[in-house]
Write a structure and sequence with these properties.
Blueprint lengths: L1 E5 L5 H12 L3 H12 L4 E7 L2 E15 L2 E13 L8 H15 L4 E5 L2 H4 L5 E2 L5 E3 L8 E5 L2 H4 L4 E5 L1 H7 L3
Parallel strand pairs: 4-5, 7-9
Antiparallel strand pairs: 1-2, 2-3, 3-4, 3-9, 5-8, 6-8
């Protein structure tokens, strides 16, 4: 049985390791560390199999801004599961738990850059359908949004931006 809960301070080393193993590099783990240090409004959840952390998901502030205004929502990234625990529904449990918490907290939307076939099952759809595009040059179908509160989005469109910690990583800084 998998239990999903908020990150606790003692989880940090294991979260780093989960991200390193899941992505085969340190970049995502370093971004998570930077976000944890620089942003007090993240949602970081872990998945436990017994007492072992086997998965992690992070939601951090993101903004959509354009001619009709600016609206802060959330960006989902990274989502990581230890390789030996993948394809068991743990990532799905993390996404569902995180989306439920973001919805309950009043978040208007969540953006994600990822596999359309995976994230569509949670209600994500191409952000371009709402006149929203990524700050980065990415395939249209891979940049998605889940609208949690249509009233607050109300005509807001334009460029979606993750926090600067992500831009530095994407641009190789």
């Amino acid at each position: 049985m998998i239990v999903v809960r908020r990150e606790q301070p003692q989880d940090v080393p294991k979260i780093r390791e989960v991200n390193r193993q899941a992505f085969g590099q340190d970049q995502e783990a370093l971004i998570v560390d930077r976000l944890r240090e620089n942003c007090n409004s993240i949602l970081s959840l872990v998945a436990l199999a017994g007492n072992e952390i086997v998965g992690h998901i992070l939601f951090s502030p993101a903004v959509v801004e354009g001619e009709n205004g600016r609206l802060v929502g959330s960006g989902l990234a990274p989502l990581a599961v230890l390789p030996e625990y993948q394809k068991r529904g743990i990532g799905s449990e993390l996404v569902q738990a995180g989306v439920a918490r973001m919805r309950k907290g009043g978040c208007p939307y969540i953006i994600v850059l990822g596999y359309p076939g995976y994230y569509a099952r949670f209600g994500f759809e191409p952000a371009s359908r709402f006149g929203i595009r990524s700050e980065w040059q990415v395939p249209d179908e891979a940049f998605m949004i889940l609208i949690l509160n249509k009233r607050t989005l109300n005509g807001i469109s334009g460029v979606a931006r993750y926090r600067a910690e992500w831009a530095g990583a994407i641009n190789g800084v």
